[in-house]
Amino acid sequence: MSTTEPPPASGRPDDGTVRRPAHGTAREPADAARPDPRESRPAPDAARPDPGTAPPGTAPPAPDASHPGTARPDQETAPLAPDAADRELLDRWNALLISAREGTAGPDPAPYGEDLLGRWAEPHRRYHGTAHLRAVLDRIDELAAQLPPEEAAGPGTGTRADAGPDLTAVRLAAWFHDAVYRPDRSENEERSARLAERALPEAGVPAARTAEVARLVRLTVTHDPAGNDLDGELLCDADLAVLAGTPEQYAHYAAEIRQEYAFVPDAAFREGRSAVLRQLLGLPHLFRTGYARDRWEPAARRNLTTELGLLET
Protein backbone atom coordinates (compact mmCIF):
# COMPACT_ATOMS: atom_id res chain seq x y z
CA MET A 1 0.00 0.00 0.00
CA SER A 2 1.58 3.27 -1.10
CA THR A 3 0.80 6.17 1.19
CA THR A 4 2.37 9.37 2.38
CA GLU A 5 3.89 8.64 5.74
CA PRO A 6 1.93 9.98 8.74
CA PRO A 7 3.71 11.36 11.80
CA PRO A 8 5.65 8.74 13.78
CA ALA A 9 3.80 6.99 16.56
CA SER A 10 4.86 6.91 20.16
CA GLY A 11 6.58 3.82 21.52
CA ARG A 12 9.11 2.09 19.28
CA PRO A 13 11.44 4.44 17.39
CA ASP A 14 9.94 4.74 13.94
CA ASP A 15 13.18 4.37 12.02
CA GLY A 16 13.70 0.81 13.22
CA THR A 17 16.81 1.37 15.30
CA VAL A 18 18.24 -1.60 17.11
CA ARG A 19 19.31 -1.89 20.73
CA ARG A 20 23.07 -1.58 21.16
CA PRO A 21 24.23 -4.40 23.46
CA ALA A 22 27.39 -2.47 24.34
CA HIS A 23 25.22 0.18 25.97
CA GLY A 24 22.72 -1.96 27.81
CA THR A 25 19.15 -1.52 26.66
CA ALA A 26 19.38 2.03 25.35
CA ARG A 27 18.19 2.68 21.83
CA GLU A 28 19.39 5.22 19.33
CA PRO A 29 17.42 8.48 19.11
CA ALA A 30 14.16 8.08 17.25
CA ASP A 31 15.20 10.52 14.55
CA ALA A 32 18.51 8.84 13.75
CA ALA A 33 18.72 7.98 10.05
CA ARG A 34 14.98 8.54 9.70
CA PRO A 35 13.82 8.44 6.08
CA ASP A 36 12.28 11.55 4.59
CA PRO A 37 8.64 11.51 5.76
CA ARG A 38 7.55 12.51 2.28
CA GLU A 39 8.95 9.40 0.65
CA SER A 40 6.73 6.49 -0.28
CA ARG A 41 7.47 2.97 -1.38
CA PRO A 42 8.36 2.62 -5.06
CA ALA A 43 5.54 1.08 -7.02
CA PRO A 44 5.96 -2.72 -7.06
CA ASP A 45 6.62 -4.43 -10.35
CA ALA A 46 3.20 -4.94 -11.88
CA ALA A 47 4.19 -8.49 -12.76
CA ARG A 48 4.97 -9.42 -9.17
CA PRO A 49 2.42 -7.99 -6.70
CA ASP A 50 2.85 -8.52 -2.98
CA PRO A 51 0.08 -10.84 -1.73
CA GLY A 52 0.42 -9.52 1.81
CA THR A 53 -0.78 -6.00 1.10
CA ALA A 54 -4.06 -4.13 1.15
CA PRO A 55 -5.39 -2.00 -1.70
CA PRO A 56 -2.66 0.19 -3.18
CA GLY A 57 -3.11 3.91 -2.64
CA THR A 58 -5.63 3.50 0.17
CA ALA A 59 -5.16 6.07 2.92
CA PRO A 60 -5.72 4.70 6.44
CA PRO A 61 -8.98 6.04 7.89
CA ALA A 62 -10.22 5.50 11.42
CA PRO A 63 -10.44 1.88 12.61
CA ASP A 64 -13.26 -0.10 11.05
CA ALA A 65 -15.86 -0.84 13.70
CA SER A 66 -16.73 -4.06 11.90
CA HIS A 67 -13.35 -5.47 12.92
CA PRO A 68 -13.20 -4.98 16.70
CA GLY A 69 -10.18 -5.97 18.69
CA THR A 70 -7.60 -5.17 16.02
CA ALA A 71 -5.07 -2.68 17.31
CA ARG A 72 -4.39 0.35 15.20
CA PRO A 73 -0.72 0.20 14.21
CA ASP A 74 -0.20 3.79 15.30
CA GLN A 75 -1.33 2.83 18.81
CA GLU A 76 1.43 0.30 19.38
CA THR A 77 3.36 0.42 22.62
CA ALA A 78 6.84 -0.69 23.59
CA PRO A 79 8.07 -3.98 22.04
CA LEU A 80 7.09 -7.20 23.71
CA ALA A 81 9.82 -9.36 25.20
CA PRO A 82 10.06 -12.84 23.68
CA ASP A 83 8.42 -15.53 25.79
CA ALA A 84 9.58 -19.07 26.44
CA ALA A 85 7.94 -20.31 23.23
CA ASP A 86 10.41 -18.21 21.24
CA ARG A 87 13.50 -19.69 22.89
CA GLU A 88 14.01 -22.07 19.97
CA LEU A 89 13.92 -19.14 17.56
CA LEU A 90 16.42 -17.24 19.67
CA ASP A 91 18.74 -20.26 19.69
CA ARG A 92 18.52 -20.39 15.90
CA TRP A 93 19.34 -16.70 15.70
CA ASN A 94 22.35 -17.01 18.00
CA ALA A 95 23.83 -19.85 15.95
CA LEU A 96 23.10 -18.02 12.69
CA LEU A 97 24.74 -14.76 13.74
CA ILE A 98 27.86 -16.52 15.02
CA SER A 99 28.11 -18.38 11.71
CA ALA A 100 27.61 -15.15 9.76
CA ARG A 101 30.71 -13.60 11.36
CA GLU A 102 32.96 -16.14 9.63
CA GLY A 103 35.13 -16.72 12.67
CA THR A 104 35.59 -13.13 13.77
CA ALA A 105 34.73 -11.99 17.29
CA GLY A 106 31.59 -10.02 18.01
CA PRO A 107 29.19 -8.99 20.76
CA ASP A 108 26.70 -11.31 22.40
CA PRO A 109 24.17 -12.24 19.69
CA ALA A 110 21.26 -12.69 22.11
CA PRO A 111 20.29 -9.00 22.57
CA TYR A 112 20.03 -8.59 18.81
CA GLY A 113 17.79 -11.64 18.56
CA GLU A 114 15.67 -10.49 21.48
CA ASP A 115 15.20 -7.10 19.84
CA LEU A 116 14.13 -8.72 16.58
CA LEU A 117 11.74 -11.11 18.32
CA GLY A 118 10.23 -8.17 20.17
CA ARG A 119 9.54 -6.52 16.83
CA TRP A 120 7.99 -9.66 15.35
CA ALA A 121 5.73 -9.92 18.43
CA GLU A 122 4.29 -6.40 18.22
CA PRO A 123 0.58 -6.37 19.11
CA HIS A 124 -0.66 -4.91 15.81
CA ARG A 125 0.66 -7.92 13.86
CA ARG A 126 -1.65 -10.78 13.00
CA TYR A 127 -0.05 -12.59 10.06
CA HIS A 128 3.38 -10.91 10.06
CA GLY A 129 4.37 -12.27 13.47
CA THR A 130 6.76 -14.85 14.87
CA ALA A 131 4.80 -17.73 13.32
CA HIS A 132 5.48 -16.24 9.88
CA LEU A 133 9.16 -15.79 10.71
CA ARG A 134 9.44 -19.41 11.80
CA ALA A 135 7.58 -20.61 8.70
CA VAL A 136 9.88 -18.68 6.35
CA LEU A 137 12.98 -20.05 8.08
CA ASP A 138 11.59 -23.58 7.87
CA ARG A 139 10.75 -23.19 4.17
CA ILE A 140 14.27 -21.92 3.47
CA ASP A 141 15.60 -25.08 5.11
CA GLU A 142 13.21 -27.18 3.02
CA LEU A 143 14.23 -25.49 -0.21
CA ALA A 144 17.94 -25.67 0.63
CA ALA A 145 17.66 -29.42 1.20
CA GLN A 146 16.38 -29.81 -2.37
CA LEU A 147 19.14 -27.88 -4.13
CA PRO A 148 21.20 -29.86 -6.64
CA PRO A 149 24.71 -30.68 -5.39
CA GLU A 150 26.39 -28.06 -7.56
CA GLU A 151 24.17 -25.33 -6.07
CA ALA A 152 24.15 -26.62 -2.50
CA ALA A 153 27.93 -26.52 -2.25
CA GLY A 154 28.00 -22.81 -1.17
CA PRO A 155 28.49 -20.46 0.43
CA GLY A 156 28.81 -18.48 -2.75
CA THR A 157 27.70 -15.06 -3.82
CA GLY A 158 24.12 -16.14 -4.35
CA THR A 159 24.21 -16.62 -8.13
CA ARG A 160 24.15 -19.80 -10.17
CA ALA A 161 27.31 -18.66 -11.92
CA ASP A 162 28.98 -18.86 -8.52
CA ALA A 163 27.58 -22.38 -8.01
CA GLY A 164 26.02 -21.79 -4.64
CA PRO A 165 23.72 -19.62 -2.54
CA ASP A 166 24.74 -17.76 0.58
CA LEU A 167 22.23 -19.52 2.81
CA THR A 168 23.44 -17.58 5.83
CA ALA A 169 22.54 -14.31 4.10
CA VAL A 170 19.18 -15.73 3.03
CA ARG A 171 18.35 -16.76 6.60
CA LEU A 172 19.46 -13.40 7.99
CA ALA A 173 17.25 -11.70 5.40
CA ALA A 174 14.31 -13.79 6.62
CA TRP A 175 14.87 -12.44 10.13
CA PHE A 176 14.94 -8.84 8.90
CA HIS A 177 12.47 -8.85 6.00
CA ASP A 178 9.45 -7.82 8.12
CA ALA A 179 11.35 -6.60 11.18
CA VAL A 180 9.80 -3.17 10.64
CA TYR A 181 6.13 -3.69 9.83
CA ARG A 182 3.39 -1.08 10.01
CA PRO A 183 0.44 -1.90 7.73
CA ASP A 184 -0.54 1.77 7.49
CA ARG A 185 2.88 2.76 6.12
CA SER A 186 4.59 2.11 2.84
CA GLU A 187 8.33 1.85 3.53
CA ASN A 188 8.43 -1.30 5.64
CA GLU A 189 10.92 -3.17 3.46
CA GLU A 190 13.20 -0.15 3.13
CA ARG A 191 13.16 0.47 6.87
CA SER A 192 13.80 -3.21 7.54
CA ALA A 193 16.76 -3.15 5.15
CA ARG A 194 18.17 -0.07 6.88
CA LEU A 195 17.81 -1.80 10.22
CA ALA A 196 19.90 -4.69 8.87
CA GLU A 197 22.48 -2.26 7.51
CA ARG A 198 22.87 -0.72 10.97
CA ALA A 199 22.62 -3.79 13.17
CA LEU A 200 24.62 -6.42 11.30
CA PRO A 201 27.97 -4.58 11.03
CA GLU A 202 27.70 -3.70 14.71
CA ALA A 203 27.04 -7.38 15.43
CA GLY A 204 30.19 -8.44 13.56
CA VAL A 205 28.80 -9.45 10.16
CA PRO A 206 31.12 -8.66 7.21
CA ALA A 207 30.18 -5.78 4.92
CA ALA A 208 29.60 -7.92 1.81
CA ARG A 209 27.18 -10.23 3.60
CA THR A 210 25.39 -7.28 5.22
CA ALA A 211 24.90 -5.74 1.78
CA GLU A 212 23.47 -9.00 0.45
CA VAL A 213 21.04 -9.24 3.36
CA ALA A 214 19.82 -5.68 2.77
CA ARG A 215 19.45 -6.34 -0.96
CA LEU A 216 17.35 -9.43 -0.27
CA VAL A 217 15.11 -7.58 2.18
CA ARG A 218 14.45 -4.88 -0.43
CA LEU A 219 13.68 -7.60 -2.98
CA THR A 220 10.60 -8.60 -0.98
CA VAL A 221 8.89 -5.43 -2.22
CA THR A 222 8.36 -7.15 -5.58
CA HIS A 223 9.28 -10.83 -5.00
CA ASP A 224 10.78 -10.66 -8.49
CA PRO A 225 14.39 -11.95 -8.42
CA ALA A 226 16.50 -12.04 -11.55
CA GLY A 227 16.96 -15.35 -13.30
CA ASN A 228 20.39 -16.05 -11.82
CA ASP A 229 19.58 -14.75 -8.32
CA LEU A 230 19.50 -17.97 -6.33
CA ASP A 231 19.51 -16.19 -2.96
CA GLY A 232 16.54 -14.10 -4.07
CA GLU A 233 14.65 -17.11 -5.39
CA LEU A 234 15.05 -18.98 -2.11
CA LEU A 235 13.89 -16.07 0.05
CA CYS A 236 10.97 -15.08 -2.17
CA ASP A 237 9.71 -18.65 -2.59
CA ALA A 238 9.93 -19.21 1.17
CA ASP A 239 8.07 -15.96 1.86
CA LEU A 240 5.28 -16.86 -0.59
CA ALA A 241 4.99 -20.50 0.51
CA VAL A 242 1.98 -19.56 2.66
CA LEU A 243 -0.03 -19.37 -0.57
CA ALA A 244 0.32 -23.14 -0.91
CA GLY A 245 -1.12 -24.14 2.45
CA THR A 246 -4.12 -26.36 2.96
CA PRO A 247 -7.47 -24.64 2.36
CA GLU A 248 -7.84 -24.19 6.11
CA GLN A 249 -4.33 -22.76 6.49
CA TYR A 250 -4.84 -20.39 3.59
CA ALA A 251 -8.19 -19.19 4.95
CA HIS A 252 -6.48 -18.45 8.27
CA TYR A 253 -3.73 -16.50 6.49
CA ALA A 254 -6.26 -14.47 4.48
CA ALA A 255 -8.24 -13.67 7.63
CA GLU A 256 -5.10 -12.47 9.41
CA ILE A 257 -4.20 -10.20 6.49
CA ARG A 258 -7.70 -8.68 6.69
CA GLN A 259 -7.28 -8.13 10.43
CA GLU A 260 -3.99 -6.30 9.90
CA TYR A 261 -5.76 -3.99 7.46
CA ALA A 262 -8.91 -3.55 9.51
CA PHE A 263 -8.60 0.23 9.08
CA VAL A 264 -9.31 -0.17 5.34
CA PRO A 265 -13.06 -0.19 4.54
CA ASP A 266 -14.44 -3.47 3.24
CA ALA A 267 -15.23 -2.25 -0.27
CA ALA A 268 -11.77 -0.77 -0.79
CA PHE A 269 -10.08 -3.85 0.62
CA ARG A 270 -12.06 -6.23 -1.57
CA GLU A 271 -11.30 -4.20 -4.69
CA GLY A 272 -7.58 -3.89 -3.99
CA ARG A 273 -7.09 -7.44 -2.76
CA SER A 274 -8.94 -8.79 -5.80
CA ALA A 275 -6.62 -6.83 -8.09
CA VAL A 276 -3.58 -8.33 -6.35
CA LEU A 277 -4.97 -11.86 -6.67
CA ARG A 278 -5.75 -11.40 -10.37
CA GLN A 279 -2.21 -10.21 -11.02
CA LEU A 280 -0.77 -13.19 -9.16
CA LEU A 281 -2.94 -15.62 -11.07
CA GLY A 282 -1.86 -14.00 -14.33
CA LEU A 283 1.82 -14.74 -13.72
CA PRO A 284 3.43 -17.62 -15.63
CA HIS A 285 4.83 -18.89 -12.32
CA LEU A 286 4.29 -17.91 -8.70
CA PHE A 287 7.51 -19.60 -7.59
CA ARG A 288 11.02 -19.57 -9.03
CA THR A 289 12.73 -22.71 -7.74
CA GLY A 290 11.91 -26.00 -9.43
CA TYR A 291 10.97 -27.65 -6.14
CA ALA A 292 8.49 -24.92 -5.20
CA ARG A 293 6.92 -24.91 -8.66
CA ASP A 294 6.41 -28.66 -8.54
CA ARG A 295 5.24 -28.91 -4.91
CA TRP A 296 3.56 -25.60 -4.13
CA GLU A 297 2.33 -23.98 -7.34
CA PRO A 298 -0.85 -26.07 -7.93
CA ALA A 299 -2.15 -25.61 -4.37
CA ALA A 300 -1.27 -21.91 -4.38
CA ARG A 301 -3.24 -21.30 -7.57
CA ARG A 302 -6.24 -23.16 -6.18
CA ASN A 303 -6.14 -21.08 -3.00
CA LEU A 304 -5.81 -17.78 -4.85
CA THR A 305 -8.68 -18.69 -7.17
CA THR A 306 -10.89 -19.62 -4.21
CA GLU A 307 -10.18 -16.38 -2.37
CA LEU A 308 -10.79 -14.31 -5.50
CA GLY A 309 -14.14 -16.03 -5.99
CA LEU A 310 -15.15 -15.27 -2.41
CA LEU A 311 -14.17 -11.62 -2.74
CA GLU A 312 -16.15 -11.21 -5.95
CA THR A 313 -19.38 -12.79 -4.68
UniProtKB/TrEMBL annotation:
<feature type="compositionally biased region" description="Basic and acidic residues">
    <location>
        <begin position="25"/>
        <end position="42"/>
    </location>
</feature>
<feature type="compositionally biased region" description="Pro residues">
    <location>
        <begin position="1"/>
        <end position="10"/>
    </location>
</feature>
<dbReference type="GO" id="GO:0016787">
    <property type="term" value="F:hydrolase activity"/>
</dbReference>
<protein>
    <submittedName>
        <fullName>Predicted metal-dependent phosphohydrolase, HD superfamily</fullName>
    </submittedName>
</protein>
<dbReference type="InterPro" id="IPR009218">
    <property type="entry name" value="HD_phosphohydro"/>
</dbReference>
<feature type="compositionally biased region" description="Pro residues">
    <location>
        <begin position="52"/>
        <end position="63"/>
    </location>
</feature>
<keyword id="KW-0378">Hydrolase</keyword>
<feature type="region of interest" description="Disordered">
    <location>
        <begin position="1"/>
        <end position="79"/>
    </location>
</feature>
